[in-house]
Amino acid sequence: MIYLDNCATTKPDADVMKTFNTVNEKYYFNPSSPHYKGLETNKLLEQARNQIKEILKLNHQSVVFTSGATESNNLLITGMARSKKPFGKTIITSHLEHPSVLETVRALENEGFTVKYIQFNEGKLDLEHFRSLLNSDVTLVCLMHVNNVMGAILPITAIHEILKDYPKVHFHVDCVQSFGKLALPVHAMDSFVLSGHKFNGLKGQGILVFDQLKTITHTMFGGGQEYGFRSGTVNVANDVALSRAIRIAENERVQLVKRTSKFKMMIEEEVKKLPGLVVNSLPDGAPHIVNIGFPGVKGEVIVNAFSKADICISTTSACSSKRAKFNEALNALHVPETVIAGSVRISFDKYTTEDDINQFINVLNKIYNDMKELIKDAV
Ligand code: PLP
Q1: Which DSSP state fits 223?
Q2: Which atom of ligand 1 is nearest to the CA of 206?
Q3: N or C terminus: fewer CB in 10 A for the chain?
Q4: Is the CB–ligand 1 distance for residue 205 below 6 Å?
Q5: Cα–Cα distance for residue pair 309/224, rounded to 1 Å
């Protein structure tokens, strides 16, 4: 099997699994318990939290352990919007965002919030349009660092510079697809989220990083764990294993970028040789994501054809493919409708090899030959 759907999830690192199993066996105690085993377990949890702070070079920000980016985005966006409601009710975001952001801000519309979307111009976020959306009612800006469908990199530092003139605005960033591939602009974000399984950690592992001294409305109630922000018995084994995954991913980042950039180039060069096929991914996009359009053919048909050859790729993203929705991200980036319907995503991780890419290219050529009449008719 050749696995090229690493934006959906990655294979867990053996070291991360070992950490998880060891901690689960030896420290299954509740870190809130007052006995010595509880205290030891809590010490381990706090060590993991401090290690993450050190690796990510955080200063004043706190690390809240969650079950993943969906939970982290929900907690932060809803809590921050509600706490700032007396000062303004406008949230700015983009159509590129993951459903855990888009559906959260849309749910807030039912509470009287207004949501505005920044436009894109030739694959780039339009900073002038962003400036035009800012006014005294804006309290929250939510953007992703790297888009999960196209690999577009958003200008987080430039947004931060513009927001210096708007001190009441909280800037929240979804770094799920950028961590382990790009350096995080930690100084430019008021809060950000990560999901462990996107960088060879485990499913159900996530963090929300934010300044816990800032006022924020809690949306989960219970035992008051994780600064009162995310109640529920803490999954210490999961959180310690996540700190391990973060360390490994950060240590291997430069090497991963080098390898995956080469793979991206190999595939894009091949696609350019096949008349009618379109490279949707941007030349200056993230190194681990390639997006190809097959005009006149449904993306699902292409994914199935690769599946039959034992190669796993994806249509747009695992989340939106379940919802069978027209891809908002590709549409916002002005990809034509016929191309959107036939778009597929290929994504790499540290376990992807050059041999995988060569085999992918062979199968791509075979599939193209089978479908080239359909493609020719559509262009
Ligand atoms: N944000 C982005 C950009 C993603 O790609 C994903 C998952 O695909 C998420 C958030 C949600 O992550 P999780 O499903 O781990 O909660």
Answers
A1: S
A2: 15
A3: N
A4: no
A5: 50
- Let me know whether 259 and 341 are in one domain: yes
**Given 7, 142, 312, 319, the catalytic residue:** 319
Check pocket membership of 319 for ligand 1, CB cut-off 6 A.
yes
| Domains in the chain, number | 2
Same domain (yes/no): 325, 201? no
Kindly state if the Cβ of 177 falls inside 6 Å of ligand 1: yes
* Domain housing 29: 14-248
**What is the Å distance from ligand 1's center to 282 Cα?**
21
- Select from 5, 6, 70 the residue to mutate for testing ligand 1; criterion: most ligand atoms less than 8 Å from CB: 70
pLDDT at 164 over 50: yes
Q: Which of these three, 194, 229, 248, is where a domain ends?
A: 248
Residues 66 and 94 in one domain: yes
- Assess if residue 112 is contained within a domain: yes
70 and 183 part of one domain: yes
CB 333 within 8 A of CB 319: no
pLDDT tens-digit map of 177-223: 999 999 999 999 999 999 999 999 999 999 999 987 788 999 999 99
Clarify whether residues 284 and 238 are in a common domain. Answer: no
> What count of other Cβ atoms lies within 10 Å of the Cβ of residue 269?
11
Instruction: Look at residues 251, 250, 246, 175 and name the one whose alpha carbon lies nearest to residue 210.
Output: 175
Same domain flag for 211 and 336: no
Q: What is the Cα–Cα distance from 299 to 328, expressed in whole angstroms?
A: 15
**Lowest mean pLDDT, pick from 152-156, 289-293, 329-333:** 329-333
195 lines ligand 1 (CB under 6 A): yes
Task: Provide the mean pLDDT of the chain.
Answer: 95
CATH number of 295's domain: 3.90.1150.10
Give the pLDDT score at 324.
47
- pTM, whole model, 2 decimals? 0.96
Greatest distance between any 2 Cα atoms in the chain: 72
Judge if 356 and 232 occupy the same domain: no
Whether 122 shows a pLDDT value over 90: the answer reads no
To the query of whether residue 319 is one of the catalytic residues in this protein, the response is yes
Kindly tell me if the per-residue pLDDT of 343 is higher than 80: yes
